[in-house]
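Memo to structure team: turn this sequence into structure tokens by end of day. - J.P.
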Amino acid sequence: MKIKENMKEKNSHNNSNQERKNLVKITRIILLIGIILTSCFIIYEIIKVEPGYYTYGLLNSEGYAEDYPTQVKISKNITLYATVGNYLKTDFSFSIHILKGNNNTWINKDSGSNGTLIRKLPNITLQHGNEWISDAQNISFSNTGQNKMIIFVIFELWKIENNKEIYFDILFIKLNITEI
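Reply from structure team:
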């Protein structure tokens, strides 16, 4: 009987040792998987490509993005500058179209405007990290904004790809044009 009990104890001792060994193996495997997954996430964060962006704006006659004119007299010039910054992580070719509009002009962020083209600036290519400011754009008006007519100055940004212009973005200013 004692032999049977000793055998049982040895078997139970062997079983508990085997269970511990199995638990240690499982724990090691789980830790190894955790280390591999953590390493993968760290490597991904280091090498992932952040999306690029661009800046597009209008500057007033002093070169600031503030205090834009809202009241203009017929035949008097307003001066504006367009500015573009390229942070797209590639070269960016573009053109800027300057248009005038009125109450019948639609302006759509996704497709541009049906304003009247008054000037198209030459094509520009900016390398990543560079900014561009246009020459002074002097614009005058020959009609008043009578009867609550709204006059717009519209700047459209067109991306150039494979020698084709593709609408990209739009900026505009509403103006009240008055008699001299």
